[in-house]
Amino acid sequence: MTSICSTIFHLSAKQEALHASLQEIAEQKAEGIPTSRHPPVTIHTYPFVSASPPFPFEAGPPIDHASGKVSSIAPYLRSANNLSYTRTLALLRRELGPHFPFEKLWERHTYFVSSPRVVPGGCVSTPYVNHVPTMTGGVGFQDLARFYKYHFVRENITPPDTELITISRTIGADRVIDEMIFKCTHTTEIDYFLPGIKPTGKPLEIALVGVVAFRGDKLTFDTPRSYWDQASVLVQLGLLEPGNLPVAGVDVARKVVDPFGQPSNRLLTRWKESEGLPVD
């Protein structure tokens, strides 16, 4: 069988005719390929982006990003650029390298961040951290050094009994994604999770996801990012009454740890209406 150089195409969803013709070629080249090998031709399409000029040319380079500078890039264009970049990088790294130990790099970064002295060498020139629900973090080394030193690693910020339990870890071509449980007793004012909220003394369990991206062997400008259910946090601390709202407390985190240990659909008030109805 004739070998073919691995090829990847990124198309606008508007390029339907080109997509159809390339798909036919991709299927032909994939015939007889064992599952231990990657398909030689892959095609990806992206909605709501231009075919001409090619959509990657419509966004500026990452170096243009700066603190306080509002980007005019449309969300669909940003999405297409990010996805096409990662997919292309996955192919290039697979075929050519280099292969960086992202887990080790991330663990080294967290080791240095946990000390009062933040070392800039592990990040690109414009690093960025965003804790999404509270929008805490910063852009640029100065902001991040200030944030980590005074609002993250100080002894009076993170409760002393804090535990961080990793549920899963996904490693991609340019990022590490951790699914975790953060457990503590709310005995300090946790600036990054609960800014402005005085200690309640109540136990707290938070299911969160952290996204860490790299450019080469350095943390990139647009991560780390972390996501969690702030409503669950507020319910656990008695700061939000669930009432008729579709929110839950500690059960949110515990169902992540043990999916079968907590019932589903308790907040779905219409769940009983479908009981006994056919599902085929």
TrEMBL record:
GO terms classed as biological process: polyketide metabolic process
UniProt cross-references to InterPro entries, sorted A to Z: Cyclase_SnoaL-like, NTF2-like_dom_sf
SUPFAM superfamilies linked: NTF2-like
Name by which UniProt lists this protein: NTF2-like protein
Organism, as annotated: Polyporus arcularius HHB13444
